[in-house]
Design brief:
Elements lengths: L8 E5 L16 H13 L3 E3 L28 H7 L16 H18 L2 H13 L1 H16 L10 H4 L3 H10 L1 H27 L3 E7 L7 H5 L14 E5 L9 E2 L7 H6 L3 H13 L2 E5 L6 E6 L9 E4 L2 H11 L5 E3 L7 H9 L4 E4 L21 E4 L8 H6 L3 H10 L9 H9 L4 E5 H4 L29 H13 L5
Parallel strand pairs: 1-2, 1-12, 2-3, 3-6, 6-9, 10-11, 11-12
Antiparallel strand pairs: 4-5, 4-7, 7-8
Length: 492
């Protein structure tokens, strides 16, 4: 277990896109720094976000176009102005409510301005960035450029020469699209520069950044297009099985995610190099990392690609012990958390415990009347991360309000008939627990209901859009949260 995860701490779960601001999603601008100030002021020491990747049209940060690249929608344009790279004609232009296409156009013009106005140091810094990230950036930039040319069609629908990465076709495309490719690399340069400034500020304020690695990657991604041998695909590049989970708490039909499975034989032969590079890029961004769907490293649910639901799948073993050994050897100080929710077997628990990884405890799963329920606070160990709920759960207030009277009574019975209303009563229990790290979704601190949840698993509409505003975070709410952190020894 990493030393970072041995100290008693508290954190808040909030994705960057949920920050307030005038544009259509939160950004890496002043509001992100303001949120760090809030965390510091209340005594929290961890900011947990969702994955930072570039999503598809549904906005899900768990289905991205790259396992390495940052989401350009999170780039803050005011930063460009301060650097002197904002095109003069755009400084007073209407931002069109922050539409992403408009932002992309401005960044493209900023790259031209960068060529004219940037000093030698900045230009050398950009060139060094491109060299350092070439192992993923070169393929990603070409992938995005080609995807734009072909109307955002999946790479599998591209002309055969490009779909199958014939060297001559790639060479010609790189030459033809060179200006566009450089602009895409510049977008990534801006994202990483802004993120590192935020990370430096967080470090100065004593705040750790806690990130998330989806175990699987999207089929329509630069990763699969450029590394087909890493994944279970047929000779034509099609998926014969897809990833998901069987029926569980979240869905009676299970969840058919549609991601390709890994070709573990190839990964083993290459020393898990692709995975190590993935960890490297995320370890640069975060102080703590969570592997989403950790149980897939012990066995993953494989669904025939033709099935519409996840019901008719089967478990297939994975070499998680070998992969985690390789990761531990390459990154000995890595602070890693296992998202061990869902159908968890003794084998999954043994894999988690073999590497001393903290698992997750969700109080919304705790109150079924079974005193041995692992999500009850009395059954926690120190080495875990405790939550009221996660981004996949309803808000705690919404969850509680949807329970029947008997379930509500059982919860308050367990809590000793606390006089605290929901969701404060559950936050109190999480923060009072022995878990080294306790994380509260911001919606719970703001006392918000079901209409403010982030995601409903198994659905594709209306997710990932939630945002807060500072008026919701009253002095009373922030003060009570800070009091709880101090009372339970979690104040930084």
């Amino acid at each position: 277990m990493s030393a970072l995860l041995q100290q008693r701490r508290a954190g808040v779960l909030l994705h960057i896109s949920s920050l307030p601001g005038p544009n259509e999603n939160g950004e890496l601008g002043q509001e992100a720094f303001n949120f760090i100030n809030f965390l510091h002021d209340v005594g929290a020491s961890v900011w947990q976000t969702l994955p930072l990747g570039m999503p598809h049209g549904d906005g899900s940060p768990y289905q991205c176009l790259s396992a390495h690249a940052g989401n350009p929608a999170l780039i803050n344009l005011d930063w460009l102005d301060r650097k002197g790279w904002m095109p003069p004609a755009e400084k007073s232009a209407d931002c069109h409510s922050g539409q992403l296409y408009w932002k992309s156009c401005v960044i493209g013009k900023a790259f031209q301005q960068f060529g004219k106005a940037a000093g030698k140091t900045d230009k050398l810094d950009f060139e060094q960035f491109c060299r350092d990230k070439a192992y993923w950036l070169d393929d990603f930039a070409l992938f995005i450029a080609l995807r734009n040319v072909f109307g955002h069609k999946c790479w599998f629908e591209w002309p055969d020469a490009l779909k199958n990465r014939h060297p001559q076709a790639l060479k010609e495309s790189r030459k033809l699209l060179s200006a566009v490719i450089e602009g895409i690399k510049f977008e990534q340069y801006l994202f990483f520069k802004q993120w590192h400034e935020l990370k430096d500020y967080a470090r100065d304020k004593g705040i750790l950044l806690f990130g998330d690695i989806p175990i699987f990657v999207s089929y329509d991604s630069a990763d699969v297009w450029a590394n087909r041998e890493v994944f279970k695909l047929n000779k034509s590049g099609e998926m014969e099985t897809v990833a998901g989970v069987p029926p569980d708490y979240f869905s009676e039909l299970g969840q058919r995610w549609g991601n390709p499975h890994y070709n573990w034989d190839y990964l083993r032969q290459t020393g898990y190099r692709w995975w190590l590079q993935r960890i490297e890029s995320q370890n640069e961004l975060f102080d703590i990392l969570r592997i989403d769907h950790f149980r897939g490293l012990e066995a993953a649910w494989e669904i025939p690609a033709g099935e519409e639901t996840a019901i008719n799948g089967h478990w297939v073993k994975a070499p998680g012990d070998e992969l985690l050994t390789a990761i531990a050897r390459e990154f000995p100080a890595l602070a890693l958390v296992a998202e061990d929710l869902g159908i968890i077997t003794e084998e999954v628990e043994a894999l988690r415990d073999q590497f001393g990884l903290p698992g997750m405890k969700i109080l919304q799963f705790a109150f079924d009347g079974n005193p041995h329920n692992p999500y009850l606070p009395m059954n926690f160990s120190h080495n875990c991360v405790a939550y009221t709920g996660t981004h996949d759960n309803d808000t705690t207030l919404g969850w509680f309000e949807n329970l029947n009277d008997g379930d509500k009574q059982r919860i308050y019975d367990y809590l000793g008939w606390s006089s605290l209303p929901m969701p404060w009563a559950l936050m109190h229990a999480v923060l009072a627990s022995v878990a080294n790290l306790a994380v509260i979704p911001l919606q719970d601190i703001l006392l918000l209901g079901s209409s403010d949840r982030m995601n409903t698993p198994g659905t594709t509409e209306g997710n990932w859009h939630w945002r807060f505003n500072w008026q919701q975070l009253t002095e009373e709410k922030a003060g009570r949260f800070a009091h709880f952190l101090s009372m339970f020894g979690r104040r930084a």
